[in-house]
Each structure stands twice: as C-alpha cells, then as structure tokens.
C-alpha cells in the first residue's frame, strides 16, 4: 500500500510548493484590492483639479522647485522698438538666477533661447522646449533685440517671476509675463511626467499584476 502511494506522489511536480500557490493567490487578491481602491477614489472624487492644486501648494509652498518642464513660448506684443525703423529683432531667453554667482559672469543658468523674429514688435514664436530645472524659486525672463555683428544684443524687456508651486500639478498653465519697461509675453509651462493621474497609475499597477499572474500560471503549467 505504501509503495502505491509513493508512486502516485511521484507523478506530481515536486518543485511546485505551497508557497508558490500562496503567492499566486496573493497576486489575484492584489488585483481585486486595486480595483476596490480605484472605485473608492472615484466615489470620493479626490481627482478634482482644485484639490490636486491645493495638494501641490501645501507640498511645495515656500520651497525650491525642481523637475523636467515643457515651456512653450507663444508670442509677445507691444515690445519696445529698438531699431531705426521703429521695430525690433526679438528673441526670448529664460534663465535661472544664481544668487551666489557660481554659474559664471552672468550669474545665471540659461534654460532656453528662441529663434529671432526680424522687424516686429509683436512677434510670434510658437516654440516648445523641454528642460530640466534645477532647484529654484524664480525664473528670469528676458527679451533681447538681435543687433548687428559688431554690437551687443540689447534687452528689450525683462521680468523675474516667482516659480509657482501650482505649476507642479502636471497641468498646462498659461502665464502672461508683463515685461519691464513695456510689453508682455505669453508662455505656457507644464511639468513633465505621469503626475497625479491616479487612473493611469491604477491601470498600470493592474496590468503589471495581471502580467505577473499570467507569467506565474504559465510557469506552473509548464512544470506540470
């Protein structure tokens, strides 16, 4: 009788342990929990835009901001004329000011520089830049006039803007920068990344768990 039982036992895979079965069960349970959590979050309506902005304000208020941002330079208007024909050859430069002067003579780090639009005081660029911003509280926005080969480019307008914590909510924000001494510039800024898109994260987690479960089952079937 004992010999028959041992023969039957040998027909089953000896390397599939109870621990493996428990792991598979835990994966299936995790998938259920992910679905439950996502449904509860939708019911509580925590993904409203206003609440997301308030959360970021609390997290970053008064702190230096850092990350990868998409900055779009749209247009400027009513710029100060600088050429003899009553127009200018404007281009935009955005920098991070450097208070301790460790970044060179100009004391700042250049983030982007647009193309030059000739003979206008109302230029339109529609140019987008992706840039990594080191920890900072302010950005320096300058509009220059492209001068002749022998003379330095003059500043048409300039403004230092405070880095707003609300820009870190991964939404696109339009900023109207009032330049000094005159003119204004429209830019759009968006923090890159997956952000607070909870639906994205839950779908990603669920798919990863499902792939793990399928791989686990496939391996068990292969061993059997």
Automatic annotation (TrEMBL):
<dbReference type="InterPro" id="IPR000008">
    <property type="entry name" value="C2_dom"/>
</dbReference>
<feature type="domain" description="C2">
    <location>
        <begin position="46"/>
        <end position="177"/>
    </location>
</feature>
<dbReference type="InterPro" id="IPR035892">
    <property type="entry name" value="C2_domain_sf"/>
</dbReference>
<dbReference type="Pfam" id="PF00168">
    <property type="entry name" value="C2"/>
</dbReference>
<protein>
    <recommendedName>
        <fullName>C2 domain-containing protein</fullName>
    </recommendedName>
</protein>
<dbReference type="InterPro" id="IPR052811">
    <property type="entry name" value="Glucose_resp_signaling"/>
</dbReference>
